[in-house]
């Protein structure tokens, strides 16, 4: 195939030697590409290391600020909780006071009102025999009861 000329003798290159040279060239090109890729990977790793260091430098103060904010929020929540418990206590005291006032003054006020109604009715001089101008109707649990039935039911209760 190819002849190589040398000073001493002519050497013929065989097919195996050509294949070996091609493989060696291929490996040299592959190693070159891998070296370039490794160099770029090294640059990327350096840039990533710098980025992580910068993020760490910025994150530490941010975490300290966040921790302080959480502590402050916890303090405010404790204050609000104390205020809410005080409001609950005041509400229960006000409820107890209103119950006491209602039970103390409610019964006598109802009696005074009933007495006043009785006095007004007695003073007006209305006769039991005279019919009312218009029969009254009461609503009981969503139903209308005629005045005559109402009087039968409540006649014993008024006396």
Automatic annotation (TrEMBL):
Coiled coil: none annotated. The keyword Membrane applies. Keywords: Membrane, Transmembrane, Transmembrane helix. Residues 126-140 have a biased composition (Basic and acidic residues). The chain crosses the membrane at residues 20-41. InterPro entries: UPF0478. Residues 150-159 have a biased composition (Basic residues). The keyword Transmembrane helix applies. Pfam families: DUF948. Residues 126-159 are annotated as: Disordered. This is DUF948 domain-containing protein. It comes from Streptomyces caelestis. The lineage of its organism: Bacteria, Bacillati, Actinomycetota, Actinomycetes, Kitasatosporales.
């Amino acid at each position: 195939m190819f002849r190589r000329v040398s000073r001493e003798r002519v050497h013929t290159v065989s097919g195996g030697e050509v294949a070996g040279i091609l493989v060696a060239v291929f490996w040299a090109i592959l190693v070159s590409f891998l070296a370039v890729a490794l160099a770029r990977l090294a640059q990327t790793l350096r840039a990533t290391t710098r980025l992580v260091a910068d993020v760490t430098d910025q994150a530490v103060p941010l975490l300290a600020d966040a921790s302080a904010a959480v502590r402050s929020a916890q303090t405010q929540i404790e204050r609000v909780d104390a205020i809410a418990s005080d409001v609950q206590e005041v509400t229960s005291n006000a409820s107890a006071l209103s119950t006491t006032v209602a039970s103390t003054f409610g019964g006598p006020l109802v009696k005074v009102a009933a007495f006043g109604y009785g006095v007004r009715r007695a003073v007006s001089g209305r006769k039991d025999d005279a019919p009312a101008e218009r029969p009254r109707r009461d609503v009981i649990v969503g139903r209308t009861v005629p005045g005559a039935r109402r009087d039968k039911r409540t006649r014993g209760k008024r006396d």
